Amino acid sequence: MQHRKFSSVIISAVMGLALLSGCAGGQSAQPSNGAGTAEKTPEQPAAANSQVVNVYTARHYAADEALYNQFTEKTGIKVNVVKGKAEELIERIKREGESTEADLFITVDGGVLNNAKQAGILQPAQSAVIDQNVPKQYRDTDNQWIGLATRARVIVYAKDRVKPEQLSTYEDLASDKWKGKLLVNSSTVMYNQSLFASLIELNGEQKAEEWAKGVAANMARAPKGGDRDQAKAIVAGEGDVGIMNTYYVGLLLNSKDAEEVKVGNSIGVHFPNQSTTGTHLNISGAGLIKDSKNKENAVKLIEYLTSAEAQTQLSKANFEYPVNPAATKAELLTQWGEFKPQQIDFAKLGTNNAKAIEIFNKVGWK
């Protein structure tokens, strides 16, 4: 009996030592900084968060990346970028809710920016610096998005076949004189939807519908391709006039492809409606995410992107119009001269979007 009792004691002791050794081994295998454990020291996430800003963007340009890198060099704040289509990013941020890592949403088009606001994913970006950098007309009425740059949606024409004095307004493109001579891309393109939404706002639904019907009837071919493809088709003789953003004309003229440069030099740029309602603008902007974890850094990034220095660089690299009046425009934009822009609330582009799509479908603008 005593022998059995003694053996049991020894076995229990050995098992106890093994258990203690196992626990100690588990602890020593863990990272010393707490990574991989259920609880992290409060200092670690605070330090990480104070040095980052997470940008969800539908703008995919090298010019933007260069500005993000310069911001990091100046401030030490790292810019993490998630790219995607605007609508998909809005839905993702909505789905992620309070757990989202997004701090800023950046996109092109005033209608899309208004959709982000209506989706409830943004909050006001309060900053005296932003207010000074960006005039009121390029900011949301509640500062839930801030303009970063604009592009004019203009009429382009074949220099060898069209005289500038033949051009006047967007509305004139629906007249019979342009029958079979007009080139424009699909009604699914947001630039066309926002242009048409602006005409609904300015001219009313009935007149806007008549315009869309006239444009569809005047098309030289079924809509296809992007803005630059319309310019190429003009030079190829498929049509005489087209609708495109100034940004794309700049890209053609400064392309590494000699044929694209030739296209750019062969088309003229006309700013429509200078005696009436002004030329339509497409705006890029940044919105501060409602559940941002790095709000202060996000506001600092907007302040930098809207500074005269950054705005000048963006204009020269991307041929966009700066929103900061203190910035210097790209030389090409200066050569085109000043123009009268439309004076409407960019939010109306989103409000009228559904009606614009409905009318496009009705009149057969594919």
From TrEMBL:
Residues annotated as binding Fe cation are 60, 247-248
Coiled coil location: none
Q: Where is the signal peptide?
A: 1-26
Q: Which UniProt keywords apply?
A: Ion transport, Iron, Iron transport, Metal-binding, Signal, Transport
Example GO biological process: iron ion transport
Pfam families registered for this protein in UniProt: SBP_bac_6
Q: Which GO terms describe its molecular function?
A: metal ion binding
Q: Which PROSITE patterns match?
A: PROKAR_LIPOPROTEIN
Which Gene Ontology CC terms are recorded?
outer membrane-bounded periplasmic space
Family to which this protein belongs: Belongs to the bacterial solute-binding protein 1 family.
Name listed for the protein in its UniProt record:
Fe(3+) ABC transporter substrate-binding protein
